[in-house]
Design brief:
By secondary structure, the protein is of the alpha/beta class. The chain has six helices and 18 strands.
Length: about 325
């Protein structure tokens, strides 16, 4: 970046009234002894053969999705992280149910664990943590991504960066330079594709169409393509209770879908609605189970349009489906 209105790409200079930084993030490995033995999620696409055993470090969607992939292909999978449950930004019930379901598929979780070092033992990597040691054929650092802002000359033109290199912005995605904005993974926070898309759309609308357009993170549907999958839109129960103390009803159900009864599979589905009691506005929809991303995509329309619990109750159910449970929830489990 040459100045507040100009960037250089190779030998070409491009100028504009506004500049938007959307350079994403990159994988990183924690600075621990033996870190050169660790792979990142980028490296996994270049494996020449399926490892017999895999340890993944990280509680986020990348590590959990790859855990499901490797377990499904027959690898022995261990997932380690420092917290008690995965997906720290998700609803508490989602986190708990997903961990239980993944464990039922044979995935081992080591929680409350911090990595101390990695060592090579023959053709195995020994993982040393404060919770003990074990061996795996490969070790994957899936500890998130860091902003890909190094070497862009951002600070030289006055753009303020955070400790991890993230671009510091206000609620309108504006940086410390009036004509420069930033969206997506490079600003830190939630690193999911729908969030970056929503930020970009809101920014474009505000600059060129509607000056009052804003980014509404709670209307952004997201999915985690684990086994089973997660779909969510709106506020978590924890967020809703914090912003609406004493005014939240929670509707929740857990069941085994009909398609799993004949093959006698143990997999269950969890569905949850978070509702503001005073006006019956649905604040959040959450699901763990088969087809969760597909179902949540449709429910995101309802939340964006301001659907109430009465709207859900009036909606006829398509039977027999799993999705019908969202419109058949009648009694709150928490008031």
């Amino acid at each position: 970046m040459l100045d507040a209105h100009t960037v250089q790409v190779g030998e070409k200079k491009v100028s504009g009234k506004y500049l938007a930084i959307a350079v994403g993030g990159k994988s990183w490995v924690p600075d621990k002894p033996g870190k050169e033995l660790a792979l990142t999620s980028d490296d996994l696409f270049h494996l020449k053969q399926l490892p017999k055993s895999v340890t993944l470090m990280g509680s986020g969607y990348i590590g959990l999705e790859f855990a499901g992939i490797f377990a499904g292909l027959g690898s022995e999978v261990t997932v380690m992280f420092r917290s008690d449950l995965p997906l720290p930004e998700m609803d508490g019930d989602v986190r708990k149910v997903l961990k239980e379901q993944m464990e039922s598929r044979g995935i081992r979780f080591v929680t409350g664990a911090s990595l101390e070092k990695l060592t090579q033992t023959g053709d195995q990597i020994e993982v040393h943590t404060d919770q003990g040691s074990w061996k795996s054929e490969i070790f994957v650092a899936a500890t998130g991504r860091v902003p890909n802002t190094e070497g862009l000359g951002l600070q030289e033109v006055g753009v303020n960066l955070g400790e991890k290199g993230e671009v510091l912005t206000d609620e309108h995605c504006r940086t410390s330079v009036e004509s420069i904005f930033a969206v997506g993974d490079c600003v830190g926070g939630v690193q999911l594709t729908p969030y970056a898309i929503a930020q970009g759309r809101a920014l474009a609308a505000r600059l060129f169409q509607d000056p009052n357009a804003d980014f509404r993170p709670h209307h952004v549907p997201t999915a985690v393509f684990t086994q089973p999958a997660v779909g969510t839109v709106g506020l978590t129960q924890e967020q809703a209770e914090e912003s609406n103390p004493g005014d939240i009803d929670v509707y929740r159900t857990s069941f085994r879908p009909m398609k799993y009864t004949l093959p006698d599979k143990p997999e269950k589905v969890m569905m949850k609605l978070v509702v503001r009691r005073s006006n019956q506005l649905v604040l959040g929809c959450h699901m763990v189970g088969s087809d969760a991303p597909e179902i949540i995509q449709a429910l995101a329309v309802a939340l964006t349009c301001g659907a109430s619990k009465q709207d859900f109750d009036r909606t006829l159910a398509v039977h027999p489906t799993a999705a019908e449970e969202f419109v058949l929830l009648r009694d709150p489990v928490k008031s």
